[in-house]
Amino acid sequence: MLRRLATARSLRVAAASAAASAAGTLAYTSCDASSWSPASYPLALAPPVVASKPGRLQGRSAIVTGAASGMGAASAKLFAAEGAKVAVVDVNGEGAEKVAADIRAAGGDAIGVACDLTDEAQVKAAVKFIEGTYGPCNALFNHAGGLVVKDFLKISLKEWYGLSTL
Ligand SMILES: NC(=O)c1ccc[n+]([C@@H]2O[C@H](COP(=O)([O-])OP(=O)(O)OC[C@H]3O[C@@H](n4cnc5c(N)ncnc54)[C@H](O)[C@@H]3O)[C@@H](O)[C@H]2O)c1
Questions:
Q1: Domain residues for 10?
Q2: Which of 25, 63, 71 has most ligand 1 atoms within 8 Å of its beta carbon, as the pocket-test mutant?
Q3: Which numbered atom of ligand 1 lies nearest the CA of 68?
């Protein structure tokens, strides 16, 4: 649903697959594109540090969905470390705000936005709020999702449709 909206608003879809390997909190040490490597983003227990040098996304804004936890949260922090203003979107509004607060505490710019992506009205309201705050968005990382890990025949219809709806 958000993808349709994004297309309508000509949002440029950006994948943050590099962040997908990050299971913990990231500490950022470099944002220089010419010297980028996975080793530039070591895993650490310390809070994320937004790089002092201008990042590759300076002056841009990004929406990251499913960003209250897991790879979405890691990606939101990585976008912020590259200088982007980040809308941290999740059905878990409290978690989204916590991630946004972590980014702000590290010197970045982020807002937490509570939104159930399966509800079109909420998506429209969220995009309106985000673009009202940051202006037209340059990137969308649509990461929200979930897994149902159980025997196929034990998956309920609700779980099955829930997965395909999102
Ligand atoms: N973790 C992995 O190893 C892995 C590997 C391959 C694919 N994936 C896929 O990546 C996606 C996210 O994985 P993760 O490990 O980061 O999971 P996660 O559970 O940590 O994060 C998913 C986030 O999506 C949010 N979310 C769920 N439903 C939502 C909705 N309707 N609206 C808004 N937000 C919603 C959740 O609240 C959660 O914060 C899933 O689709 C998963 O299948 C994960």
A1: 2-165
A2: 71
A3: 39
Q: Render 70-127 in DSSP notation, one character per residue.
A: HHHHHHHHHHHHTT-EEEEEES-HHHHHHHHHHHHHTT-EEEEEE--TT-HHHHHHHH
Please indicate whether residue 101, judged by its CB atom, sits closer than 6 Å to ligand 1: no
**3-state class of 104 per DSSP?**
helix
Domain count, the chain: 1
- What CATH number is given to the structural domain containing 154? 3.40.50.720
Q: Is 123 helix (H, G, I), strand (E, B) or coil?
A: helix
pLDDT (tens digit, 0 to 9) for every residue of the chain, 166 residues total?
544 444 333 333 333 333 333 333 333 333 444 444 444 444 433 345 555 567 889 999 999 999 999 999 999 999 999 999 999 999 999 999 999 999 999 999 999 999 999 999 999 999 999 999 999 999 999 999 888 899 999 999 999 888 888 8
With tokens 């099955």, the residue in question is: 160
Q: What is the distance of C-alpha 67 from the center of its chain? A: 4
Ligand 1 nearest atom to the CA of residue 117, by list position: 32
Ligand 1 atom closest to 116 (CA): 32
